[in-house]
Amino acid sequence: METINTATGTIRPGALGSVLTHEHVFVLNEDYRLNFLPDWDEEAQVAGAVERLDQLAGLGIDTLVDVSVPGMGRNVARVRRVAEQVDLNILVATGFFTYNDLPLQLHYTGPGLGYDSPEPLAEAFVRDLTEGIPNSGGVRAAVLVCVIEAEGLTPGVERIMRAVGQAGAATGAPVVVHTNPHTRSGLVAQRILAEEGIDLRRVMLAHSGDTGDLDHLRQLADAGSILGLDRFGVDVLLPHDTRMATLQALLDAGYADRITLSQSAFCYSDWFDPVKQRRVAPNWNYRQISERVIPELRRAGVSEQVVDTMMVDVPRRFLAGAVAEPGLPASFSIISGLSPEN
Q1: What predicted TM-score, i.e. pTM, was given to this entire model?
Q2: Dihedral of the alpha carbons of 226, 232, 235, 236, in degrees to the nearest 10
Q3: Which residues of the chain have pLDDT under 50?
Q4: Which domain range does residue 139 map to?
Q5: Which of 27, 60, 113, 168 lies deepest, with the highest CB count within 10 Å?
């Protein structure tokens, strides 16, 4: 892939640098905001996000992947305002986020439904990747996102996952899957996406680091997928020491080339009361990888080459795959080789 889409234009793969592969800027559903957040201050929140994200460059981070999609309150125009003011590449996503059902707008339209039509989800995802996201000023998505949680492969979840697979197969875009390793939902995601023609090497299984089950993680990685160890700081779900022990064991077993590190942090989320969130999960922020995880790895004797593999090489390989050219229909894709100078 010769260029990669960001919130402010395209960059060469070599400009990705050190990447946080699973983060959010704003998790904010507009319907909820309008009806339940009367004190929301748009300008103050954007300014706060700029201040927080601008610090990442000083920590050695060059790129942040915002995996927020519809269902989480994606507003790419707001993210673009932030991206234009920070010294950081911000990549945005397309897909849909739900643990169960699709919204009512999609219950009756689609293959075999009351209003029988081609899958509108797949069409929308391809459009976001190749033409631009509506109301964003032309920003194109860089990754696809879907979810399979403890609720399992519900009809809504399967429909989204297959649409993501279809869009990924048509465009070559990489896929991030929010998984629950305690229910081994990553295995289901691998099966469904493979059935839709996705190369599992282009699949990142998010939240894999929420478990210490090394046999399960090795099974996922041996199938080719990337393990997203991406909730560092969320100690309420798994203690930091356990997360680090899992990471170290995977590195010792030779899996550095299938690991990415991140925090799944945010500048604002309507899922949590900010005061309570800071009390329950005080370490949940964008700084854990740079200020805590990497220094601990270095003290444990992990080489800079291994750190760079996880922070630079694996994200670049994941993000710099083949995509469809803008304007091409979903049934066509252009495959571009990746040379060292890209």
Answers
A1: 0.91
A2: -60
A3: 322-342
A4: 4-319
A5: 168
